[in-house]
Amino acid sequence: MGKKSKEKVILFCDGKKCCKYNSEVKECFQDLVKEAGLKDVVSVQKMKCQGLCKHAPIFCIHKDECVGKVSTQDAKELFAKHIA
Ligand code: FES
Q: Are 66 and 53 in contact (CB under 8 A)?
C-alpha cells in the first residue's frame, strides 16, 4: 500500500529567485504545521518557478490562493485562514 496522501498542501516556489527569499517563511509554515499537530494532514512541498519571480517568494495554499512577497506574518495569517 502506498503512503496515504495528505489532505492539505502548502506549496513554496523553489525557483531560482524565490529560493533566495523563502527559507524563513518555509520554516515558519513547517513550525506552524508542527505546533498545530497537523504533520499527518498538511504537507509542505516545493513547486517549480511560477513565472512570478518579481513577487518572490511565492507560496500557494492548497492551490486555492497563491501569494507573493510572503512574510512570516503573512504565513501566520494564511495558515489561520486556510489550514488551522
Ligand atoms: S522563482 Fe519563484 S516564481 Fe520564479
A: no
